[in-house]
Amino acid sequence: MRNPDVKYNLPISQLDLSADGEDRSVLTPRFVTYLERLVSGSEQPAIRELTFLSDLSAVERRELAARWSQIPVERRHRIVSNLAQLAEDNVEYDFDNLCLQAIDDSDAAVRKSAADGLWESERSSALNSLLDHVATDPSPEVRAAAALSLGHFAYRAEIGKLRPYQQQRLRDTLLAVYNDASQPIEVRRRAIEAVAYLSDDESIFAAIGDAYRSDEAQMQASAVHAMGRNMDARWLDTVLAEMDSRSVEMRYEAARAAGELNDRRVVPQLMGLLGDRDTEVNLAAIWSLGQIGGAAATGALKRLTQSEDKAISDAAQDALAEAGLADGPPGVL
Q1: Residue 262: left (phi > 0), alpha (psi -120 to 50), or beta?
Q2: Which domain holds residue 309?
Q3: CA distance 237 to 231
Q4: Residues 136 and 223 in one domain
Q5: CB neighbours of 163 closer than 8 A, spacing ≥ 6?
Q6: Which site from 89, 146, 247, 296 is most exposed, i.e. has the minimal number of CB atoms within 10 Å?
Q7: pTM of the model as a whole
Q8: What per-residue confidence (pLDDT) applies to 46?
Q9: What is the per-residue DSSP string for 122-141?
Q10: What CATH number corresponds to the domain at position 137?
Q11: What is the mean pLDDT of the chain?
């Protein structure tokens, strides 16, 4: 019997070919060998060996799905978490198909790593899967990870890259998760952070305000994080006030939110945070000065490029480049 996955005697124009001319309509010996090692090998594979799981063809996806549960669970977890990091560091790799397979794994740790790995995906299938898991996954860790990754889709919706029905489902699902008091705080706070990208929505404004009035410090910090993402001027006074908070986490979130609100009235307080005792707060203030730009911010950043602290000087250099973009070319108001 002929293998239905193999195409026989087709013109070259009808074959599924890769950029280098490889026929992607059949399983290559390399793919079969490497997949077999994952299933039955006695050693953990090196990360470089796992790149064969990038940009899977249709036939490779079917074979991976058929064999996935046969891979030992600890190895499945390591595969997904390692490749998610690899894709973050190397834009040429695409492990979305792997993560979409793994997000339905029986093991919660594998599902969480898969949800993390979809944080930059632009696929409708990823959006749908993340929405399903943020609403119904039995693991709160997976639900929180799914909410975090849905923030990227909320941003895409805000810039007009999602269809109206997709945006509506995204909004409604995330608001429902936030408003569900039975959800753990970690899930609710990630939901409000994600949905905050959607502007001009009174229900979202109300949810952010509600989160800020919470008795939980973590939820309050997430509310300030959400204020920055929401980019509405109504949050400016709150962000300015929280830049003087006793809480390091709150000062950090306020410093970041100030940059996203992009109002030059925050520059003096951001410059004050450059001397904060916490390095992460310093770095957040530097980033925000770069987002806002202007003569005062640029002057402060230029001085910081001479810092003996490499993290500070590097961050200032990057922020200066951003400030140049914010200010525009000479002669542009």
Answers
A1: left
A2: 238-328
A3: 13
A4: yes
A5: none
A6: 89
A7: 0.88
A8: 85
A9: --HHHHHHHHHHHHH-S-HH
A10: 1.25.10.10
A11: 91
